[in-house]
Design brief:
CATH topology: hypothetical protein yedk fold
CATH superfamily: SOS response associated peptidase-like
Helix content: 10-25%
Mean pLDDT: 92
Structural class: mainly beta
Strand content: 35-45%
Distance between the termini: 24 Å
CATH class: Alpha Beta
Low-confidence stretches: none
Length: 202
């Protein structure tokens, strides 16, 4: 599952790439983590939302806890109550430059980055919803991993071809679901020495 991705392009570049308006004064980081803002293309514009649908949690004594951001939606769960309404009514594009997976032994894992070969900016399929906790929030739809990812992870985001972006946004749920397949395009793989979990302050 994806718990970290990069988005290096400016909001204006994203707007031009996907032919939508760009929100003014949007705040987002180059590296995006669950529970933090990232850019989303939805309702004819690109704007920030919080990455992760809030999941209400309670302690063993029934005390309300801080919500957990559910940042990945499996394609085989899209018909369940948690995701169904958003998949039918509120699909979005998530513009990214690369996503990361943790590789290596526990406690010494490093970041391996995946991107679309020859592309600095591409879209993955997402869902969004309005929330009381964080305002508008989004989640990334995940499918089985392609062969290039087999030695690191068995799941990956829905990578959309340029001609499929409009289908994902405006097509029927059946048409959108037909796009939920492992990436058929070549991926660029960047195995780094970056620690998966960076010390605070870095």
């Amino acid at each position: 599952m994806c718990n970290l991705y990069k988005m290096r392009s400016s909001i204006a570049e994203v707007g031009r790439t996907f032919a939508v308006q760009a929100a003014v004064g949007a705040n987002f980081g180059v590296e995006v983590y669950p529970g933090y803002p990232g850019l989303v293309v939805a309702q004819g514009e690109v704007r920030p939302m919080t990455w992760g649908f809030p999941l209400a949690l309670k302690s063993k004594h029934g005390q309300q806890l801080k919500p957990k951001p559910v940042n990945n939606a499996r394609e085989d769960k899209l018909a369940t109550p948690f995701w169904r309404d958003s998949f039918i009514k509120r699909r979005c594009l998530i513009p990214i430059s690369a996503w990361a997976e943790a590789e290596g032994e526990k406690g010494r894992m490093t970041r391996t980055w995946y991107s679309l070969e020859g592309s600095d900016l591409f879209a993955v399929g997402g869902l969004w919803c309005p929330t009381q906790e964080w305002g508008d929030a989004y989640s990334m739809v995940m499918v089985d991993g392609c062969a290039q990812m087999a030695d690191v992870h068995d799941r990956m985001p829905v990578v959309l071809a340029e001609q499929d972006c409009r289908v994902w946004l405006e097509g029927s749920p059946e048409d959108a679901f037909s796009l939920c397949v492992p990436c058929p395009f070549p991926l660029a793989v960047d195995r780094t020495c970056e620690a998966w979990v960076k010390p605070r302050g870095q």
